[in-house]
Specification:
mainly alpha, disordered N terminus, DRC1_C, two-stranded antiparallel sheet, 2 strands, Dynein regulatory complex protein 1 C-terminal domain-containing protein, 11 helices, DRC1/DRC2, elongated, 2 domains
Length: 244
C-alpha cells in the first residue's frame, strides 16, 4: 500500500529517490499535467462525460487515477519511474535529433531555475504518446514476464465429487415429496378452475340466447299481423281458439 495517492504527487515536495536522481515537485507536476492533457485515449468516454461538471483539479485527480490504472501504475515508486523515464526520453531524443528540438540549448541554460529536469526542458506534448508506448514496452512487459505464475497453477479437483454429491442432497427427500404432492394438487385445482371457466362461458352464452328469444317472442305476440289472420297464432298459443 502507498502512503499517498500518485495523483497527489504533483503537489508534494521534491525528494531524493534512493538509487535514483532527484525529481523536483515542479517536474512531477508538469509531467502529470501533460499526462492529463495528452492521454485522453486511456480514459473511457463515459468517465469523461461524468467528469465534466467537476472543477479542473478534481477532474485531473480522477483522470490520473484512470490513466495510472491503464498503465499498471499502482505504487508511488512506479510514478517516479514514469517521471524519470519521461525526462530520460526527452534527453535521448534531444541528443539524437537536435535539429527537431530548437529549445535544447535554451532548456539547458534554464535548467538551474527549474531543478535537474525543469519544465522548460521537459518532453513536448506531441511526444507524450511515444513516451507512453516506450514506457510500457520497457517496464510493463518485463513485469509481466517476471510475475509469479500463481494464476497458472493447476486447480485441485480432488474434492469435486464430494462437493457435487453434497449439493445433490441439499434439499431433503421429505421436502421433495411434499413439493411433488403440492404440484399434483395444484394441477388438479387448475383443471377444476379451467372447467368452471368453460361452464361460466357457456352459461353466459345461453343467457344471451334466452334474452334474444324473449325479445323476438315479445315482438311476435304484439305484432298487428295477429289481428288480420283468421286463426291468430297468439290465440292458439294461449288456448283461446275454438272452431265454429
Amino acid at each position: 500500500h502507498r502512503d499517498e495517492s500518485p495523483a497527489m504527487l504533483g503537489q508534494s515536495d521534491g525528494r531524493e529517490r534512493q538509487g535514483g536522481p532527484a525529481v523536483s515537485a515542479q517536474t512531477v507536476k508538469h509531467i502529470l499535467e501533460l499526462l492529463c492533457d495528452e492521454s485522453g485515449f486511456l480514459i473511457e468516454n463515459k468517465l469523461t462525460r461524468l467528469l465534466s461538471p467537476l472543477d479542473k483539479d478534481e477532474r485531473s485527480l480522477i483522470k490520473l487515477d484512470s490513466i495510472f490504472g491503464a498503465l499498471g501504475i499502482a505504487v508511488e515508486e512506479d510514478v517516479y519511474k514514469l517521471v524519470e523515464f519521461f525526462c530520460r526520453y526527452k534527453r535521448e531524443r534531444s541528443a539524437t535529433k537536435p535539429d527537431e528540438d530548437g529549445d535544447a540549448g535554451e532548456s539547458n541554460a534554464d535548467s538551474s531555475a527549474g531543478g535537474s529536469h525543469g519544465p522548460q526542458g521537459l518532453i513536448h506534448p506531441n511526444e507524450v504518446l511515444g513516451a507512453i508506448k516506450a514506457f510500457v514496452m520497457e517496464f510493463q512487459k518485463p513485469r509481466e514476464r517476471t510475475a509469479p505464475p500463481r494464476l497458472m497453477e493447476e486447480r485441485d479437483s480432488s474434492e469435486d465429487a464430494t462437493y457435487w454429491a453434497a449439493a445433490a442432497k441439499a434439499i431433503p427427500e421429505s421436502r421433495l415429496r411434499v413439493w411433488d404432492a403440492l404440484e399434483s394438487a395444484l394441477e388438479k385445482y387448475h383443471n377444476v378452475l379451467s372447467g368452471r371457466a368453460q361452464l361460466i362461458t357457456e352459461t353466459v352464452s345461453l343467457r344471451h340466447q334466452n334474452t334474444e328469444l324473449r325479445t323476438l317472442l315479445h315482438q311476435y305476440l304484439n305484432s298487428q299481423v295477429n289481428a288480420e289472420l283468421e286463426i291468430p297464432p297468439t290465440q292458439m298459443l294461449q288456448g283461446e281458439y275454438s272452431p265454429t
